[in-house]
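User: Okay, second chain of the day. Same drill as before: sequence in, structure tokens out.
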Amino acid sequence: MLTLMLSAIGWALLLLAGIGMLYMAVATFTLNRFLGKPEQPSPGNEAVTILKPLHGWEPHLIDNLASFIEQDHAVAIQLLCGVQRPDDPAIETVRMLQTRYPGARIDLIVDETCHGSNGKISNLINMMRHAAHDVLILSDSDMAVDRDYLSRLLAALRRPGTGAVTCLYGGRGDNGVWSRLAAAGSSYQFLPSLIFAKVHGMASPCMGSTIALRRGTLDAMGGFARFADILADDHAMGQAVERLGLSIAMPPMLLTHAFTDARLRDLWRHELRWAATVRGLAPAGHAASFIALPLPLALAALPFHPSPALAALAATLIVRFCTKWAVDRHARIISASFWTLPFRDMLSFAIFIASFFVRSVDWRGTALNMVGDGRVTSSSETART
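Assistant: Same drill. Structure tokens below.
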């Protein structure tokens, strides 16, 4: 009886691995089609304010910020940078950027006022009264863009019925091996699944990489203050836009997300916070997301049925190679080497399991307690799982 039970478990794991391989193959095909049809936007003629909430030192922060200045955009660009501490190392970076581009409008706001548990939203609230233009573009500090970023973004925002525009991104590791592993998770796991969900109507993502909208839309949503105690503020903003009867556009282009996780501990905390956030927002979808990790499933079947499991592992590696090739081709960067992906998949599976047990998360040194409905409260204790 025990032998039959163990055999059944092995076959079940192989079946799930097979489903996962098929899913990733279809997701890769969908990604290739979605990103393979770039649009040809007309030049934008609207002035924009780019909101950059900053916090601390990042390896290539000045170059990432500079990419938002070096745009093929003839109209005014205001780069509005905000920090919440007068001793924040990012201040010096902004000063250097102002020196590098004396003709650009680069404004720095230093304001310690706190408006809720979400430090990023507090920063944005402090910055907003200094925003000069009607078109607002929120973008995290760790993003870098191509020169046609604004023209393609504004073309999408001009479409009738569009309330906001968000952007996909590939990963770039800027701080050693662990940052490259973090980038690999973003490029080769998250990105294909997100495009698959968007194309097939299973999700309407709104991400901190970019949220472009008009001032009137933000006011109709209730302003940034409405999101001051919400962990997944970008997701909540997307929901607020859709409640106004407007859509969220996602043009077929990739930004670059610069990962800075220098240690395994940093990567673990960062991705555990992300996974726990998704679990809180979409518990059923998060519970089913393990299917996108067929390699750990095939490996788990190895003790039960060695020969079929080895064949499944080989097939999984082929699918992973195809996914990596497709993403690298469109992103024009290599997030990590192919041979790191098995370890990356095992790490992702461990984080997936751990996400069901975490009740507080670490956000830039602050422990945030998850209290339900996507809301958080700050705590002075260190986040633990």
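The CA atoms of residues 35 and 330 lie 7 Å apart.

User: Thanks, on to the next one.
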